[in-house]
Amino acid sequence: MPNYYDELDAVLRAVADPTRRAVVERLAKSPAVVSELAAPFSMALPSLMQHLRVLEDAGLVTSEKHGRVRTVSLRPGALDVLHVWLGEQRTPAEHQADRLAIHLNRAT
Amino acid sequence: MPNYYDELDAVLRAVADPTRRAVVERLAKSPAVVSELAAPFSMALPSLMQHLRVLEDAGLVTSEKHGRVRTVSLRPGALDVLHVWLGEQRTPAEHQADRLAIHLNRAT
């Protein structure tokens, strides 16, 4: 089990690349077989497989092989570490705005 | 005004680096002068300035010079683009879990 910082680092490095980000966006809709994932990119299959390996190493995707077909899925909660980090970066002004919003919601 | 994808790309590339991420984490607490930002890193000042330039180009930080002192601040809403992207990556199962949570909240 990697620690929070290692996991965050791996996830951010993985999604900083636009091709890998497009793969994550596609898989958020539903699992897909490798040939489907490759279709939108003008990219040799070995290059795509390498991107998938980075995503798998970062814990963002899992894959399963049935016969000759490999299906790739987004791992549930894969991006949670990024949610946590973003939450921690809220500035004091943003926290204050949150509290004001809660107050106004209660007052109405 | 950069478009959403360019902005997202610049922000993710900026925070994928651990030094730049540490600077963002520090600035989320309060603005800081450059020498304060440099202190925790065993890094030459020109290298830190280069990281700050990447953060500034990505729209994450702003800086102001008063006399010889440059103060760097996290731009309010700087990470919003990342919040939006994360929201879009919620899987159908996660959306279903959200709806169930809302239903259970209403039922109690």
Describe the protein.
The structure is a homodimer of 108-residue chains. With 108 residues, the first copy, chain A, is of the alpha+beta class. Helix content of chain A is 62%, strand content 13%. Chain A contains six helices and three strands, in the order ααβααββαα. A three-stranded antiparallel sheet of chain A has the order 1-3-2. In chain A, helix 1 (4-15) runs antiparallel to helix 4 (45-57). The longest helix of chain A has 16 residues, at 92-107. Chain A binds chain B through residues 5, 8-9, 12-13, 15-16, 18, 21, 24-25, 28-30, 74, 76, 79, 82-83, 86, 88-94, and chain B through 5, 8-9, 12-13, 15-16, 18, 21, 24-25, 28-30, 74, 76, 79, 82-83, 86, 88-94.
Q: Extract low-pLDDT stretches of chain A.
A: none
For the largest interface, the chains and their residue counts are: A-B, 27 and 27 residues
Query: What is the helix fraction of residues of chain A, given as a range?
Result: 55-70%
- Overall mean pLDDT score of chain A? 90
Chain oligomer state: homodimer
How can the largest sheet of chain A be summarized?
3 strands, antiparallel
User: Over all CA atoms, what is the radius of gyration of chain A?
Assistant: 18 Å
Summarize the structure.
Chain A has 108 residues and is an alpha+beta fold. Helix content of chain A is 62%, strand content 13%.
Topology of helices and strands:
2 copies of one chain form a homodimer.
Chain A: H1 4-15, H2 18-29, E1 32-33, H3 34-38, H4 45-57, E2 61-66, E3 69-74, H5 80-88, H6 92-107
Antiparallel strand pairs in A: 1-3, 2-3
Helix pairs in contact in A: 1-4, 2-4
